[in-house]
Amino acid sequence: QVRLVESGGGLVQPGGSLRLSCTASGINFKLYTMNWYRQATGKQRELVANITSDGTTTYADSVKGRFTISRNNPWNTVSLQMNSLKPEDTAAYYCNVRARGSLVWGQGTQVTVPG
């Protein structure tokens, strides 16, 4: 069974930083593209960043230059370093992976940046 567990969310003041982590189990982690999504209240879930098995990264325009995605294959972990946080970054953040024919989501972690 594929399982994803996120951690690291919280309340941070504008301009602050947070680091989110997502630990995977049940897959050969190094083979998979890992994604971070977010969903703000009343809005659609959107892709924030992803990282392929060879380390290629992609970012949403809204977070380029502020967020960095990375992976640690021996630890089966994908991280999202978030700097210069803004109120509009407030959302539930989810990692996901498409594995074994299914799209698997973690439970999410809340990030709140007060306006």
Judging from the principal axes of the Cα atoms, what is the shape? globular
List the helices and strands in order.
Answer: EEEEEEEEEEE
Number of beta strands: 11
- Spatial extent as radius of gyration: 13 Å
Estimated structural class? mainly beta
Strand residue percentage:
over 45%
**Unreliable sequence segments:** none
Query: What is the number of helical segments per DSSP (H or I, 4+ residues)?
Result: 0
Q: Whole-Å distance between the termini?
A: 40 Å
> What's the story with the biggest beta sheet?
7 strands, mixed
Helix content: under 10%
Overall mean pLDDT stands at 97
Give your account of this protein's structure.
Strands 2, 4, 5, 6, 9, 10 and 11 form a 7-stranded mixed beta sheet that branches. This protein has a 4-stranded antiparallel beta sheet with strand order 1-3-8-7, with no helix packed on it. The mean pLDDT is 97. It is mostly beta strands.
How would the blueprint of this fold be written?
Layout: E1 3-7, E2 10-11, E3 18-25, E4 34-39, E5 46-51, E6 57-59, E7 67-72, E8 77-82, E9 91-99, E10 102-105, E11 109-112
Parallel strand pairs: 2-11
Antiparallel strand pairs: 1-3, 3-8, 4-5, 4-9, 5-6, 7-8, 9-10, 9-11
